[in-house]
Amino acid sequence: MSQTARKNTQANDDDMRPEYDFSRGLRGVHAYRFSKLSSDEALVLSYWQGKGFELGSFAKNEMRDLKTPDFRLSRGGVEVALCEVKSFQRDEWLEDQLKQAAPGVLVGGLRPDPVFNRISNAVHTGFQQFESVNPAHRLLNFLCLVNHDTSARPEDLDRVLSGFEDPLHGCLDSTCVQFSEGRIREEKKRIDLYVWMDFLKPDKIHLRRFFFGNLETRESVCSLLGVDPAKVKNIPPAA
Asked: Where does residue 54 rank: exposed (0-12), middle (13-18), buried (19+ CB within 10 A)?
């Protein structure tokens, strides 16, 4: 099983409300050097620094030979985690059709919601990057999702990881099992922390939720973040 907690930016860290436990995009510019960060990566870097982490990058030879995550996170000079940033851009599918359509032509139509594939892809590619440098899982793996799409919500991550329609509100219909039990079935458990952040403006992101993806490392991650693991609720695994 795994866990999640939501944080309202209006509250202090002590007011963070853990909510429940689930079972079991487009990537920003790779941080070859901190001077070449994407705007999302820079915001995430600043967030972790504000939490008391020291940030480090990978050596050039590592980045040349391996698909590395974006940052190394340390506390008191001791490396504790790796961090990868994924960005979900605004879905412009309908706008693109309108731009290309002749006057008076109807556009649009039905299609699968792309956000689930984007989340699944982010988990899959993030897992590969973590495994390339942390195959023994000696360090914690943190995946930060920076959302620019107003139609996407942190509940979509719930669905992809748990397979349930709305586990937060007790709706345990298995509507997204094709994602939760697909290629990321085992991969998602190797990511210890998921962080969903909404992009507000060029210099601000809104932390919406923490998701604790690995039962074995839950307490150590909670300790780093100042979250009481006893207050994180659990939900059953997907059928």
From this structure: middle
CB 234 within 8 A of CB 21: yes
**CB within 8 A of 217, min separation 6: which ones?**
140, 192
* 73 and 83 Cβ atoms separated by less than 8 Å: yes
Q: In the chain, how many H helices and how many E strands?
A: 7, 11
The predicted model gives 57-76 an average pLDDT of: 80
Residue 104 lies in a domain: no
pTM above 0.85, yes or no: no
Distance of alpha carbon 24 from the chain centroid: 15
Please indicate whether residue 54 or residue 39 has the higher confidence score (pLDDT): 54
Range of the domain at 7: 3-97+111-229
Q: Is residue 77 part of a domain?
A: yes
Measured CA to CA, the distance from residue 29 to residue 86 in angstroms comes to 9
Q: Does 117 fall in a domain? A: yes
Residue 81, Ramachandran bin (φ over 0: left; ψ between -120 and 50: alpha; else beta):
beta
Residues 6 or more apart in contact with residue 159 via CB below 8 angstroms: 116, 165, 166, 175, 176, 179, 180
CB atoms within 10 A of CB 27: 18
Cα(39)–Cα(28) distance, rounded to whole angstroms?
8
Q: Please state whether beta strands 140-147 and 193-201 pair in parallel, antiparallel, or not at all (unpaired).
A: parallel
Question: How many CA atoms does the CB half-sphere of 105 hold within 13 Å?
Answer: 10
Any domain includes 236: no
Count of structural domains, the chain = 1
Pairing of strands 140-147, 78-88: parallel
